[in-house]
């Protein structure tokens, strides 16, 4: 087991290295750099001005060298301008020679500087991750139990009306991407002119103008059911159907097993069969599915945070990518890649631990 | 001209439809509730025959199914009445008349398919499953809408790009301000925030989706099959390497790939053109290997067939990847491609990069599925028999393994078209790739969402359209899976 985890960790490191290099290379292609220079400087820069802007800031060195600098294994660039200013990747103009660090990359714990937000990348990412963590927590809290309940109820008696209605429901949710369900929810539940809210307000059932709030900006500080439920519901729904279907498949398989038949023939109550005999075995497969679903939720997070204007990690990704903020984008991709690979690792380990029939040598 | 209501002269039918739908929901819920309760259901029906007492659950089931049929009949009445009386039956009626060619095509397709269903293999079996038929109907509805609206320019009521003054953000059914005699007198589904007709944009947008999604899925399958079969069959280093590459791409968040690949700056570097050159050659390779492995013992057949097929595919391939006579066009250098007079069609650089990105995202998943299937099937006896006969590895992969893996692949193909549709919508939602006036559904949702709480129709209409198409594809896949498992 130890060797297995070590080998997986090695693969994770290699994958993360390759991926960050690809992101680095793509963001450092010349047209992207040109756009960066023009958004940072001004839009009417001549080609020479762009080249000198980029050259002074170390953007025009060969990509492997720049990548090494970002990693912290190659000394950072140092520029001496004609008017005698000396500045570099690791220090600003005016730093005494003795205090200038040579290396500054992620190995030294320096994640760089965001050109969009004008602040250090590390704290920015952590702050936004915290906000998205809150969102994800509630999403998992809503999605996992409801998906498991739907799946178990559907798989408990295959082919009944209950099974068919719940299966159709899960298919419908997998067919509804977040930008569709989010739009429908806002129009139906959070519009003061259309949908349910005007009716409910007229009958005096709700105090505020709308049933839910269509923007989650206020939920960043203080999340309430009113302003946070719609984004959480929107993300959960899309992920839910898939987990529910997997749970259903696993449950139907377990329900046809010999030991369930034995239990029925012994006269055990149906509710006891489901809860005590079937459930534990039926939940092994959904565990891996749930873990593998987490990276997919990241997509939903980006869409929902854009739609509901919740400034978390997904919103940060959109900002970084659309402004070609290289170091921020790199940090964002490192985080998301680590999330993807770590959940894969956890799902593999968990599968082995939960299922004693499988042994990894 | 007066504004249209939703159902016009048929408004008296609405309460009846509501009632039957309510009865259906209530009866089915009651049936489910009753079925959870324990029942002592065996009664003797004389002699040794025991029959199950259907009990209250059976009564509810019957009521529910009658109410379901009643609702379907009522909806059909709306559609049929619309075909005959048109706008008198409100917006629904007017849309229904506008879509007359689609209804006709659907009826013909279903009639022909049901009559010949025993001779049509898996496709015919689809018509044995209700879920599959509903899914197929939804999918074909959008396919016909796309073809009639996009290619033949039927169905649409107004130009999808022209802005009509005074129609900004108007509600569904608003009569056209200052209409000429030749104009269609209403905006059936309202106007968007640039005063364009939502209904016509919906129809035009369906053509964009119907064109790109299946094509991109086919290309992703070609890439996945051509790489996945050898990875599964040979195993070893090749498998390790290809799987690592696939996992590498899969570890990227999809949106990050889109943001990195689908930007005007990246198009300038020519990178999407290079990726298109690599990705689009896979169908060519696939067909070449497919034919060669089959006929290499008969060179007199193989050579002419290969020359003809490869010539045609090569021409298509070159037309596809060359734009304005160049394969790759950047600010500093050009790689010349097909000259313009040989170029069959041009897909603009914006569309090309969308296409490439979607294929690139989908191919690794297909690769993993095909690899898994190949790993499983290569242990079968008929593969061993082929190996003993001395067949080459590619013959075994393409003519022994692939046909036997077709069931899961067809099902996944349907699901994947749906997923591709969702991806296209995501691209549009973030305003990537297609130009902002493109009528495709994702872009329209993105444009409409800014005024969502005031004028929801501009975003809701394409959202529901996308939902119904993807739902149809998923139901179709479900029906196919059920029917293919049956034998």
Protein described:
The complex is a heterodimer of chains A (361) and B (487). Chain A is mainly α. Chain A has 14 helices and 4 strands. The N and C termini of chain A lie close together (7 Å). The model of chain A has no long low-confidence stretch (mean pLDDT 86). Chain B is mainly alpha-helical and 487 residues long. Chain B has 19 helices and 6 strands. In chain B, the strands form 3 sheets. Chain B has a two-stranded antiparallel ribbon with strand order 1-2. A two-stranded antiparallel sheet of chain B has the order 3-4. A two-stranded antiparallel sheet of chain B has the order 5-6. In chain B, strand 5 and strand 6 (334-336) form a beta hairpin. Chain B is globular. Classes of the chains: A mainly alpha (361), B mainly alpha (487).
Q: Please identify the structural class of chain A as seen in this structure.
A: mainly alpha
- Output the radius of gyration of chain A: 26 Å
Shape of chain A: flat
Number of strands of chain A: 4
> Radius of gyration of chain B, rounded?
27 Å
Largest sheet of chain A: 2 strands, antiparallel
What order do the SSEs of chain B take from the amino end to the carboxyl end, as H and E? HEEHHHHHEEHHHHHHHEEHHHHHH
> Termini of chain A, distance in Å?
7 Å
């Amino acid at each position: 087991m130890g060797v297995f985890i070590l080998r997986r960790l090695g693969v994770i490191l290699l994958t993360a290295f390759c991926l960050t290099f690809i992101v680095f290379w793509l963001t450092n292609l010349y047209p992207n750099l040109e756009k960066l220079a023009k958004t940072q400087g001004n839009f009417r820069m001549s080609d020479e001005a762009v080249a000198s802007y980029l050259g002074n800031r170390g953007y025009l060195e060969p990509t492997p060298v720049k990548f090494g600098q970002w990693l912290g294994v190659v000394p950072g660039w140092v520029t001496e301008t004609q008017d005698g200013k000396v500045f570099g990747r690791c220090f600003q103009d005016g730093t005494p020679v003795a205090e200038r660090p040579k290396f500054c990359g992620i190995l030294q714990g320096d994640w760089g500087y965001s050109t969009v937000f004008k602040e250090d990348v590390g704290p920015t990412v952590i702050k936004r991750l915290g906000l998205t963590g809150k969102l994800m927590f509630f999403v998992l809290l809503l999605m996992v139990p409801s998906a498991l309940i739907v799946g178990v109820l559907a798989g408990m008696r295959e082919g009944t009306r209950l099974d068919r209605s719940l299966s159709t429901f899960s298919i419908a949710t997998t067919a509804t991407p977040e930008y569709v369900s989010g739009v429908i929810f806002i129009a139906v539940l959070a519009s003061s002119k259309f949908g349910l809210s005007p009716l409910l307000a007229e009958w005096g059932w709700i105090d505020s103008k709308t049933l839910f709030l269509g923007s989650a900006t206020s939920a960043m500080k203080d999340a309430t059911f009113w302003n946070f439920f719609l984004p959480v519901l929107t993300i959960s729904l899309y992920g839910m159907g898939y987990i529910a279907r997997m749970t259903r498949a696993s449950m139907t398989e377990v329900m046809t097993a010999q030991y369930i038949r034995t239990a029925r023939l012994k006269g055990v109550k149906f509710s006891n069969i489901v809860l005590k005999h079937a459930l534990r075995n039926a939940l092994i497969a959904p565990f891996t599915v749930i873990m593998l679903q987490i990276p997919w939720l990241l997509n939903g997070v980006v869409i929902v945070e854009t739609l509901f204007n919740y400034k978390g990690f997904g919103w940060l990704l959109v900002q970084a990518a659309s402004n070609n903020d290289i170091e921020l984008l790199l940090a964002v991709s490192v985080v998301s890649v680590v999330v993807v690979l770590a959940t894969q690792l956890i799902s593999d380990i968990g599968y082995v631990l939960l299922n004693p029939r499988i042994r990894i040598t | 001209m007066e504004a249209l209501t939703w159902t016009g002269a048929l408004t008296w039918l609405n309460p009846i439809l509501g009632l039957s739908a309510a009865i259906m929901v209530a009866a089915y819920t009651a049936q489910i509730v009753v079925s959870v309760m324990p029942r002592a259901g065996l009664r003797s029906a004389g002699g040794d025959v025991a029959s199950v007492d259907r009990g209250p659950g059976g009564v509810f089931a019957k009521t529910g199914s009658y109410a379901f049929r009643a609702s379907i009949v009522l909806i059909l009445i709306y559609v049929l009445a619309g075909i005959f009386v048109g706008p008198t039956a409100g917006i629904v009626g007017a849309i229904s008349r506008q879509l007359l060619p689609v209804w006709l095509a659907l009826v013909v397709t279903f009639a022909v398919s049901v009559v010949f269903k025993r001779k049509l293999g898996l496709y015919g079996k689809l018509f044995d499953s209700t879920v599959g038929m509903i899914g197929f109907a939804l999918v074909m509805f959008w396919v016909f809408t796309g073809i009639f609206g996009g290619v033949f320019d039927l169905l649409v009521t107004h130009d999808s790009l022209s802005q009509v003054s005074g129609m900004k953000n108007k509600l569904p059914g608003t009569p056209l301000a200052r209409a000429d005699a030749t104009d269609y007198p209403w905006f059936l589904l309202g106007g968007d925030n640039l005063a364009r007709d939502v209904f016509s944009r919906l129809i035009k947008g369906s053509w964009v989706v119907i064109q790109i999604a299946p094509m991109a899925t086919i290309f992703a399958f070609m890439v996945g099959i051509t790489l996945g079969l050898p990875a599964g069959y040979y195993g070893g280093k090749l498998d390790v390497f290809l799987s690592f590459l696939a996992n590498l791409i899969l570890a990227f968040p999809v949106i990050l790939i889109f943001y990195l690949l689908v930007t005007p700056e990246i198009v300038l570097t020519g990178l999407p053109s290079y990726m298109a050159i690599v990705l689009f050659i896979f169908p060519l390779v696939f067909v070449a290997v497919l034919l060669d492995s089959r006929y290499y013992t008969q060179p007199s057949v193989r050579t002419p067939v290969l020359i003809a097929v490869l010539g045609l595919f090569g021409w298509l391939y070159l037309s596809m990847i060359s734009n304005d006579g160049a394969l790759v066009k950047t600010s500093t250098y050009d790689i010349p491609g097909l000259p313009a007079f040989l170029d069959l069609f041009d897909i603009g650089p914006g569309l090309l990069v969308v296409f490439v990105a979607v294929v690139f995202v989908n191919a690794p998943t297909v690769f993993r599925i095909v690899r898994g299937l190949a790993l499983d099937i290569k242990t079968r006896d008929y593969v061993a028999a082929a190996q003993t006969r001395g067949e080459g590895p590619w013959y075994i992969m393409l003519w022994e393994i692939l046909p036997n893996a077709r069931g899961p692949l067809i099902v996944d193909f349907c699901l994947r078209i749906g997923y591709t549709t969702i991806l296209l919508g995501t691209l549009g939602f973030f305003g990537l790739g297609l130009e902002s006036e493109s009528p495709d559904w994702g872009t329209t949702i993105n444009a409409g969402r800014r005024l969502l709480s005031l004028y929801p129709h501009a975003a809701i209409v394409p959202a529901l359209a996308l939902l119904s198409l993807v739902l149809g594809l998923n139901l179709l896949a479900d029906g196919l899976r059920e029917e293919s498992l049956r034998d």
